[in-house]
Amino acid sequence: MYIVADPAEISGIERDSLLVTRVGTLNCAFALIDALTTARIHGNLPSRLVNVGTAGALVDGLSGVFEISHVLKHDFSSDTIAAITGHPYPNGIDLDVSGLLPTAWLATGDSFIGDSVSRERISRQASLVDMEGYVVALAGQRFGIPVTLLKDVSDNADDKAAGTWTDALPASSRRLMEALEVLAL
């Protein structure tokens, strides 16, 4: 199953194979859980979840498509929650990667990162930032389905990001399709 937040992020995938979740973790969670629950009821869970989309670079000099090896939520304070409740709340999922593409750590949250203060803070945890990847990885974990996250750098998650994201979509879409071909997905 191919999963994308916005159809402009990828072209060339048949609509029947593409789940468009809309932007953000809650939209992604509801759309994905609905689709996977329906698939489980009908006995046809997908063999793999493949999330393709754009990401902001939290580190200067990054470009192109990355296969995500670790994903976390940047807006969830797991240490604080663990201290309050006395129970651990892990915040990170390791993913198997193919070895065919460059890898990166991804931070997921519900804010479009477009300022240097947020960029600096989140860059201590990951090199890329998006708004859906962690949800896809967690759903895959819960449903027992392998996950591949492919993210193309569309912007630098800085003060110019909101103005350049839309312009970057055609090239990002092309690079993501090429990465899918490399991975034979």
UniProtKB/TrEMBL annotation:
InterPro entries: Nucleoside_phosphorylase_d, Nucleoside_phosphorylase_sf. One of its GO terms (molecular function) is adenosylhomocysteine nucleosidase activity. One of its GO terms (cellular component) is cytosol. Residues 107-175 form the Nucleoside phosphorylase domain. One of its GO terms (biological process) is L-methionine salvage from S-adenosylmethionine. Gene3D superfamilies: Nucleoside phosphorylase domain. This is Purine nucleosidase. It comes from Corynebacterium durum F0235.
